[in-house]
From TrEMBL:
Natural source organism: Nocardioides pocheonensis
This protein's record includes keyword Protein biosynthesis: no
Signal sequence segment: 1-25
Region (Disordered): 28-69
Full protein name: YncE family protein
Pfam families in UniProt: YNCE (PF21783)
InterPro entries: Host-pathogen_enzymatic-act, N2O_reductase_N, WD40/YVTN_repeat-like_dom_sf, YNCE-like_beta-prop
Amino acid composition bias (Low complexity), ranges on this chain: 28-56
YNCE-like beta-propeller domain location: 107-391
Keywords carried by this UniProt record: Signal
SUPFAM superfamilies to which the protein is assigned, alphabetical: Nitrous oxide reductase, N-terminal domain
Amino acid sequence: MTRSARRGVGAACVSALALATVALAGCSSGPPAARSATPPSSAPSPGSTSAAHPAAEVPKGPFAHPLPGMPPVVGQDVYGADRPGELSPAVAGDRPMIYVPDSSPTGHTVTLIDPTTYKVVGQIEVGDLSQHVTPSYDLTRLYTNSSVSNELVQLDPRTARRVRSISVPRPYNLYFTPDGKQAVVMVEQHDIIQFSRPKSFKPIKEVTAPGCSGPNHADFSANGRFMVVTCEFSGELVKVATLSHKVLGVLKFGSMSMPQDVRLSPDGRTFYVADMGTDQLRRVSAASFKQVGVLAMPSHPHGLYPSRDSRFLYVSDRGAGRVSVVSFRTHKIVDTWVIPGGGSPDMGGVSADGKTLWLAGRYDHEVYAFDTATGKLRARIQVPGSPHGLCVWPQPGRYSLGHTGNLR
């Protein structure tokens, strides 16, 4: 099977946009603990403190020896600055919007959805085979990763308009180091992890890891000193030093493995890896870089999104047409949200208030909006082509590590 076939980018582009069709069909209710909300408050800029976020404690455990220049972790919680409504001043004037890139071979648009009306309100012309929409480190720009066009297309989140394009070879995904000094482009097609300048994207260092084929998703350690990268086509996880760019380790999962999204647990001790090939959610120790647990999933787990209270991990089960809610405390599935009639939930993000999980329907030309309190589907909205790494904007947090909105 070819790489493009394994990524599922073969969906044909539809000819016209259909406006939202809201489906309020019933499904299982969410866990009682997921229904509590943290009162919103104003978020500080990177490195500052506020009444909501008092001065950071002395880093310890996985937070010790933080990367110089990285904003201090709040409350010994990786996502401590991502509480509902805690928006940075940098996004105060941004227009609330759902950005949906078309990753079909002939796709060259980002569809805009109003999150309050669930309706398509426009399109932006971008490059061919656009994979993800990624917030910049300082939250002032969005970048569409247009692989076939070899470019990053910069968008203005205040106006929801295109600004310019930047030449970058085969960008599949985009990340930023926790100090904001480097961008990391996943050049999946050429098996390269490219460290670059964060604004010009001029290359600093190209990293290739032993046996790593198809690097595409990543996350950083709690102290920012290293990142882990999933290699989809070779079934392994790679550990790379943030400053020296040295490959610190390679963890092989097996020939059937197809690791996708990876996210760090709130306590900074465990990386969760969605393995689409083996239908498993793997747990890897951040300290030892060894697998410490496996959870069987329904079918083709793909995207991973922490709840705004750091208690649950939402896992999009693309092959099953559902979302699994996993407890960070017990490492077990505590609820399942089903798409009536089936679907293909892929990549996305959680709304600023934490009440809605937005996911692209990769093979069904649609976008899903789940109520995180009840698990019911609030809306399914038709969009063109093969929707992939949609970005919910704005989101709480002080800075972006990339992807579709991994904020801390």
